[in-house]
Design brief:
Elements: H1 4-24, E1 29-32, H2 48-58, E2 62-66, H3 73-79, E3 83-87, H4 88-96, H5 102-119, E4 122-128, H6 151-155, E5 196-200, E6 206-209, E7 212-217, H7 224-228, E8 237-243, E9 246-251, E10 254-259, E11 266-267, H8 268-275, H9 277-280, E12 286-292, H10 305-309, E13 336-338, E14 344-345, E15 353-359, H11 362-374, H12 383-397, H13 412-422, H14 426-430, H15 434-450
Parallel strand pairs: 1-8, 2-7, 2-8, 3-4, 4-7, 9-15
Antiparallel strand pairs: 5-6, 9-10, 11-14, 12-13, 12-15
Length: about 450
């Protein structure tokens, strides 16, 4: 019998190979900052961004991080690391406005480079939204040579590390000329490479590194080449576009990827806009998320939410019906996440898959069935009635509106259906196309469930 652990390891390796093959032909790599559905094989101690940086090093490339995340998480990460930050935009402005002489700026750059080598820290070159010209204006062999961007040259500094008989001072290394007598210790200069842990290998052992160079820009990925091709030696750099962490949420035939906010947070409305739960379920239904073991994480079987609406309400039921409180059976050993009063799920773990569980409002469901039997929508399920009930609850108890509904009591799905109907062509409507009939069926079901309005 095959060893399950070996089988999973082989599957992970195959998935990783396929992932990096696709990245290799792209103009830039796209990876999650921490864990994401695009890199599900990552181990708990690994981080997508750091794995990508290590891979760029193995290819002798210096990472160029394209930080378009709203909260500038890349900048935040490096501000808390052992980093010396080069404010490239400030350098450009200081020289342009004559706040500093060019020579003084270059001397400041030299000192930052030397200190990064001396103390084994990351030299973090923050371009911001500038195209600081390191190729022509802010470079010199004896202050800040272009070899700074050559990872092969950076990696070769390990030959001069502490504990070796080698001395960088007076050597032929391209960075040796930036040193001054005042930078030496007893006539020696040996970069540090042993004081901090940068990664952990498969056996859980720390692999220690030291001085490295990371470049970061706020330009959009498609603009990087045009904006920076004359300012940086791009042939020496590997563009990497970090993304927020993601999860896959599985419900019926849906299996889509969702972006997490900071701290592993997801808004219910984001889920509802795609899966249309508030369109299918009535009353005060509850939604919870159950984290699945990685073996159960399927491929991306995503499809548009509108495609599933016309397949009937039964397709949206959890099959089989499972407990949502984690009592008994498999659910007892799974993480069950409930939605808070503001309509958010918290503490989701990037790179994992979660099953969407729905606990129905039995009273509302029975009322809908009764309305269907005699052909008359139950008044208490109408949009106006639902809105009135919500307003009364808010006034008397301070309760918040039901998740997934707008202030008028309608579902988010209703808005999406109407928008799609309005976008149909004249021919599609006249010929009653499949798309038209599907949307009308969904709209009719919406009226039955919520009583029109």
């Amino acid at each position: 019998m095959a060893d399950p652990a070996n089988t999973m390891a082989e599957s992970d390796a195959s998935a990783a190979d396929a992932f990096w093959t696709l990245q290799a032909v792209a103009p830039f790599w796209t990876v999650p900052l921490a864990h994401g559905a695009s890199m599900p094989w990552l181990k708990p101690f690994e981080r997508g961004l750091l794995v990508a940086i290590e891979r760029s090093h193995r290819l002798n490339k210096t990472p160029l991080l394209i930080d378009t995340i709203e909260d500038k998480l890349v900048d935040t990460y490096y501000s808390y690391q052992a980093s010396i930050i080069v404010e490239a935009k400030k350098m450009v402005l200081d020289v342009a406005t004559k706040r500093q002489e060019h020579a003084a700026v270059m001397e400041g750059l030299r000192q930052q480079l030397v200190n990064s080598m001396k103390f084994g820290q990351t030299l973090y070159i923050r371009l911001a939204d500038s195209a600081c010209d390191f190729v022509n204006s802010f470079t010199s062999d004896d202050t800040f040579p272009l070899a700074v961007f050559d990872h092969e040259a950076i990696a070769s500094l390990a030959n001069y590390r502490e504990g070796t008989p080698m001395n960088l001072w007076g050597s032929s290394h391209p960075l040796a000329k930036v040193l001054r007598d005042s930078d030496l210790t007893q006539g020696l200069f040996q970069p540090r490479f042993s004081h901090k842990a940068r990664s952990v290998n498969d056996d859980g052992e720390e692999r220690r590194e030291g001085f490295e160079v990371v470049v970061a820009t706020l330009f959009k990925p498609d603009d990087v080449n045009e904006m920076l091709r004359e300012a940086l030696p791009l042939h020496l750099l590997q563009p990497i576009h970090p993304q927020p962490s993601t999860v896959r949420l599985k419900y019926s035939h849906y299996n889509q990827e969702f972006t997490l906010d900071v701290g592993g947070t997801l808004r219910f409305r984001t889920l509802d806009d795609r899966y249309a739960l508030s369109f299918v379920f009535k009353g005060a239904f509850k939604v919870k998320l159950k984290e699945l073991p990685k073996q159960q994480a399927g491929s991306n079987g995503s499809s548009a939410a509108s495609r599933g609406m016309a397949r009937g309400r039964d397709r949206f039921r959890s099959r089989p019906q499972e407990p949502v409180d984690g009592e008994g059976g498999e659910a007892a050993s799974s993480r069950i996440l409930s939605m808070d009063g503001d309509g958010y799920f918290h503490a989701l773990r990037g790179g994992m898959s979660d099953e969407v569980l729905v606990e129905e409002d039995e009273e509302a469901e029975e009322a809908a069935k009764a309305a269907g039997e005699d052909g008359r929508p139950a008044p208490r399920l109408s949009a106006a009635s639902l809105a009135a009930i919500q307003q009364q609850q808010q006034q008397s108890t301070g309760a918040r509106p039901l998740a997934g509904r707008n202030d008028e009591g309608r579902s988010n799905a209703d808005r999406l259906i109407k928008e799609e109907l309005q976008n149909l062509s004249v021919n599609e409507i006249a010929e009653r196309s499949e798309r038209y009939r599907r949307l009308r069926e969904a709209q009719d079901l919406q009226d039955v469930v919520f009583g029109g309005g």
